User: Fold endo-1,3(4)-beta-glucanase from Aureobasidium pullulans.
Amino acid sequence: MQENKAFLPDGTSPETAYQGAPMDNMDMSPTTSKWSPKGWQKKWKITAVIAAVILIIVIIVAAVEGSKNSKSKPDYPDYHALNYTLEDRWQGTNFFDNFDYHSSPDPANGFVNYVDQATAISTNLTYAGDSSAFLRADSKDTDAKNGRNSVRITSKKQFHSGLFVFDIKHTPYGCGTWPAVWMADPSDWPGNGEIDVVETVNQGNTGNQMALHTSKNCQMKSRRAQTGTVHGTNCYNGTNDNAGCAVMGASSSYGAEANDDGGAVYAMELRDAGIRMWIFNRDSPPGDLRANNDTTPDPSTWGLPIADFPSTDCDIGSHFKNQSIIANIDFCGSWANSVYTSQFKCPGKCEDFVAKNATAFEKAYWEFASFRIYSTDE
Assistant:
């Protein structure tokens, strides 16, 4: 039988057409299946490169944002020099004219009777001469069973910021005492904060304690530039029995040792960048702090402060407002009582000792040379 063959339109058979096709014009390269492991390897390489690029971009963006945050909230504030001018100088016979006398029950629940101005003057608990103003506790009553008479004064002016210089010739001390020179807003505590510039208890031979007491969200855990010893970093009054965030000075910063050296100059700077405190011997303060020098003081030249409370983790401007200057001598209370025997080895019970031992408080008095307040436009 004859085989029927099919022909292409040009008359050639498929075999002839195929046989005549030149080999070098045909694509003989192998194709890669999407199921081939070699294909997977190539795709994974591409994916890895893309992922690496994305990761690098993320790292760069994070670094830039971190840099921005670092600039907006530095780990330590800028305490640049400020131009201070003298706003007030309280000294001499008119010293107490700048204060109101507190004669209500003690807000700190001490074993004390704060007397009014007339009583304080008539019993010689406050008096002022040309070179000194005295504020003392009673040292005559031998049966002060309801608390010993004393004085607490509060400045008529209030302050939001400034440089405050307390030139003090004598600091009070003795078992059971709780004296302080401090600042607060009596009408809004602790909402507007408290700054303890000069404070201690009992014999006062452990040094001056400087502290802040505030509402929530004020801590001092970040870097600080100071020479004092840290005693607590949470300033919120609702923690640690209202111990506040405190810094302790050397034993020579308060009490008999300081008094024997002629007293001390205590300086406190309150500004948005932070709160800083210095203590100098009265015989050798910086030149711009000498009593007879009218030079504008410049804290940036005084060296490291004893206490530094930076604004890093505490908005100083919002936590401290309407600050009055307060000076007082309290007795017993929470602090003096808590360390009365354990730390200071004082005899008996605090309240009993204070009530019956009048002559033990002959050294319980403040002698102020002057209070100077400097302000700035910043």
